[in-house]
Amino acid sequence: MIPAPIDRSVRIREIRDASFRILSAHGPKALTLRRLAEELGGSSTLVTHIFGTRSALLRGITESAIEDYDEEIAQLEQGADARQRLRILLEWMLPLDEEQARAERGRIMLVGHSDRHLGVTDFSLRMEHKMRQLLRTHLRELVNDGEVEDTVEYVRVFTNGVVLSAAERPSSWSADRQQRVVDQLLRRLGIS
């Protein structure tokens, strides 16, 4: 029997999601190719066929996450005006459900890992650059040109703070509470 061909992009997403589950639950040291294969329910070749080394895995899950962001956001924002698009983006950046919270805890664990040769620093820098780029694009339509960069800084500090707070104390940061503070932020920016 010939095995069914795998869709490489689907497999990469599966590996990425499993990697963030491991990171969230056990931290960066637990993210090994063997542990990842176990999480996916198969042999190590399930992972090594796509990513031959741990370093390649970290680069790959970073690239996969960043590549998917534009598509995810575009789908969410279809038909929305500029204010609605900003609100959608802000909510997308926050861990409003358990799956998103788990992924954020995994990213936080990864960013907190200081092993530079594994590409973690690159992961952190690329993610931060992408988040700021998305904010900049959304804010250009809503604030004066001279205020865009300061507003990006302000909103990024806000989102980082909410994400970290929700990851540290999920029982205190329900989706409803996160959405209420987004409402407050938008009012303070004069964008509500």
TrEMBL record:
<dbReference type="InterPro" id="IPR009057">
    <property type="entry name" value="Homeodomain-like_sf"/>
</dbReference>
<protein>
    <submittedName>
        <fullName>TetR family transcriptional regulator</fullName>
    </submittedName>
</protein>
<keyword id="KW-0238">DNA-binding</keyword>
<dbReference type="InterPro" id="IPR036271">
    <property type="entry name" value="Tet_transcr_reg_TetR-rel_C_sf"/>
</dbReference>
<dbReference type="GO" id="GO:0003677">
    <property type="term" value="F:DNA binding"/>
</dbReference>
<feature type="domain" description="HTH tetR-type">
    <location>
        <begin position="9"/>
        <end position="69"/>
    </location>
</feature>
<dbReference type="InterPro" id="IPR039538">
    <property type="entry name" value="BetI_C"/>
</dbReference>
<keyword id="KW-0805">Transcription regulation</keyword>
<dbReference type="Pfam" id="PF00440">
    <property type="entry name" value="TetR_N"/>
</dbReference>
<dbReference type="Pfam" id="PF13977">
    <property type="entry name" value="TetR_C_6"/>
</dbReference>
<keyword id="KW-0804">Transcription</keyword>
<dbReference type="InterPro" id="IPR001647">
    <property type="entry name" value="HTH_TetR"/>
</dbReference>
<keyword id="KW-0678">Repressor</keyword>
<feature type="DNA-binding region" description="H-T-H motif">
    <location>
        <begin position="32"/>
        <end position="51"/>
    </location>
</feature>
